[in-house]
TrEMBL record:
<dbReference type="InterPro" id="IPR013328">
    <property type="entry name" value="6PGD_dom2"/>
</dbReference>
<dbReference type="Pfam" id="PF00393">
    <property type="entry name" value="6PGD"/>
</dbReference>
<dbReference type="InterPro" id="IPR036291">
    <property type="entry name" value="NAD(P)-bd_dom_sf"/>
</dbReference>
<feature type="domain" description="6-phosphogluconate dehydrogenase C-terminal">
    <location>
        <begin position="162"/>
        <end position="290"/>
    </location>
</feature>
<dbReference type="Pfam" id="PF03446">
    <property type="entry name" value="NAD_binding_2"/>
</dbReference>
<dbReference type="InterPro" id="IPR006183">
    <property type="entry name" value="Pgluconate_DH"/>
</dbReference>
<dbReference type="InterPro" id="IPR006184">
    <property type="entry name" value="6PGdom_BS"/>
</dbReference>
<dbReference type="InterPro" id="IPR006114">
    <property type="entry name" value="6PGDH_C"/>
</dbReference>
<keyword id="KW-0311">Gluconate utilization</keyword>
<protein>
    <submittedName>
        <fullName>Decarboxylating 6-phosphogluconate dehydrogenase</fullName>
    </submittedName>
</protein>
<dbReference type="InterPro" id="IPR004849">
    <property type="entry name" value="6DGDH_YqeC"/>
</dbReference>
<keyword id="KW-0560">Oxidoreductase</keyword>
<dbReference type="InterPro" id="IPR006115">
    <property type="entry name" value="6PGDH_NADP-bd"/>
</dbReference>
<dbReference type="InterPro" id="IPR008927">
    <property type="entry name" value="6-PGluconate_DH-like_C_sf"/>
</dbReference>
<comment type="similarity">
    <text>Belongs to the 6-phosphogluconate dehydrogenase family.</text>
</comment>
């Protein structure tokens, strides 16, 4: 299979490489021509066999809007666009309707795996018509971890369902990181604890709190034991806010996720060891930028 990939940033660049290692042909385009295979989107489209499949991996919002609009003008009926970025699910429905006017199909796909996806594979959550998801299955199979498909891929439902599932995934991620970070701050505050990194390391095997996030916490402490080189300012990229908004809209109590989001707001005002750890964890799994310590 040969598909196009627009957006070769932190994730898109590695996704192109993983897809190629999985035996697929990929033509990538990025505004940074140092990493791009072609100079323009027109050139990318020209390399693809019909019906064309184009995966969009650019920042949510205005950038995605512009790319989808351009593809709507340049692709042909029967072609397929996959939005693998972090678009809000309501935007998927708008983009699908916009492309449908030109006879172009649309699938949204939540992607989890961060900067480690090249090595480990990506967890994938797809939304759209069954036949359109099936068209893209060779790509999904190349990107996900090896093993049973059900362990790393799900066709969640119709248009928007993939990004809705990824939104909730990221909301849960907020709560998990905040719990680890608060535990870190409490352990660090008590002088009875003489081996802080070793304490978390001992939790990595056999305990009920073991996880990949815990592994990354240990890695962060090994690289910077006192988190002295990182500021406690923690950004949020949108999905946590959307999760809380959806919880309110559906009268679903989500106190842990909501508190974790508000903790990020608080991090922008006061110094906090816990928020240093949240910032360090975001950098570890997603390559998100941190701020140097003041």
């Amino acid at each position: 299979m040969h598909f196009g990939l627009i957006g070769l940033g932190k994730m898109g660049f590695n996704m192109r490489e993983r897809a190629r290692r999985g035996g697929l042909d990929v033509t990538g385009f990025d505004r940074n021509l140092d990493v791009s295979d072609v100079a323009t989107i027109d050139e990318l489209i020209g390399t693809l066999p019909a019906p064309r499949v184009v995966w969009v991996m650019v920042p949510a919002g205005e950038v995605t809007d512009k790319v989808v609009a351009e593809l709507g003008e340049k692709l042909s009926p029967g072609d397929l666009v996959i939005d693998g970025g972090n678009s809000r699910f309501t935007e998927d429905q708008r983009h699908a309707a916009q492309l449908a006017e030109e006879g172009i199909r649309f699938v949204d796909c939540g992607v989890s795996g961060g900067v480690w996806g090249l090595q480990n594979g990506y967890g994938l959550m797809a939304g759209g018509a069954a036949e359109d998801v099936e068209t893209a299955m060779p790509i999904f199979d190349a990107l996900r971890p090896k093993g049973e498909r059900a362990d790393s891929f799900v066709h969640v439902g119709g248009i928007g369902a993939g990004h809705y599932a990824k939104m909730v995934h990221n909301g849960i991620e907020y709560g998990l990181m905040q719990s680890y970070a608060e535990g870190y701050q409490l352990l660090a505050a008590k002088d009875i604890i003489t081996d802080l990194p070793g304490t978390f390391r001992a939790w990595q095997k056999g305990t009920v709190v073991r996880s990949w996030l815990l592994d990354l916490l240990v890695k962060a402490l090994e690289e910077d034991p006192g988190l002295e080189n990182i500021d406690d300012y923690v950004e949020d990229s949108g999905e946590g806010r959307w999760t809380v908004e959806e919880a309110i809209a559906n009268a679903v109590p989500a106190p842990a996720i909501t508190a974790a989001l508000f903790a990020r707001f608080e991090s922008r005002e006061d110094s906090s060891p816990a928020m240093k750890m949240v910032s360090a964890l975001r950098h570890q799994f997603g390559g998100h930028a941190t701020r140097p310590a003041k």
